[in-house]
Design goal:
Elements: H1 2-8, E1 13-14, H2 24-37, E2 42-48, H3 79-97, E3 105-111, H4 134-148, H5 151-158, H6 186-213, E4 219-223, H7 227-230, H8 242-247, E5 253-256, H9 275-280, E6 284-287
Helix pairs in contact: 3-6
Length: about 300
Amino acid sequence: NYVEQTADAGIRIYQPRVNGAVNVSGFSSYFDKILEQDPNAMFVVNIWVQSVSDYRFDNRADHVDTTKADAEVCSLGSLEWLEQAKKRINTIITEFMNSKYKDHMLGFMLTAGNTGEWFDYSTYFNPKSFDQCKANQEHFRLWLKDKYGTDAALRKAWGNSSVTLASARVPDYVYNGPFLDPVGQKNVIDYMEYHSYSLANAIVTLCSEVKKATGNTKIAGVPYGYVAQLGQYGGSTGSNAMTTVLQSDQVDFLCSPLAYNHRKLIDYPGWHGFVDSMRYYGKLWFSEDDTPTYL
């Protein structure tokens, strides 16, 4: 019995994985079964925040991530999605906080992006594209306006005499190894910087909503910051605004599996992220160890 074995080991934290809608009725049977065997159990509930079907847009195509259009996931650069996601998270968490399980809720983990781990779908070069939906284009232009201020400054930086803050577009996907031309590919560099900013901004904003909905009594976190594992893919991952996330007092924990290389018996798998940085900023880091045994 895994619950009894876990409790006997002094571990009281459980993270039930439930398919379907995130609500109390969907989790209650799992909670009850665990609590029957471990009355001191504490739960962390996952909330997937990216499905287009969970939101209502005037024109949904404007907010669908074009790098994963077949999966109908929201663009993480869409500011309208972000506002609706805040409300959805608040509604979900309020139900749990008003339930009989309130005192057994340790916190909530928010998931989005490739495999729910807040990195870009194009990370592994499939597809080789950036998210060019209308909402992401608009957010990118707002970011450029904040960075450059004037058309003249943007034109000088990009080496493009015709581009404007109102016409700048998400560039085509480029990968030249870990380094890009700081002059000829400045538009790509800017997009990659913006992309990391937009993911970090979404993480902090939505974790803040967790804090708001729980009266700052529960922890909030995400799987994020796989810089050590995904660094070879350059800035396309969207994982390079780690400092923003670490400096936020709205984010309590980060997590990841172990690295997927060096997993043989004689090997030593490493961390996806910089664990000492997490500790320096007062964050909890835990490893989702999915290493298979011979069994």
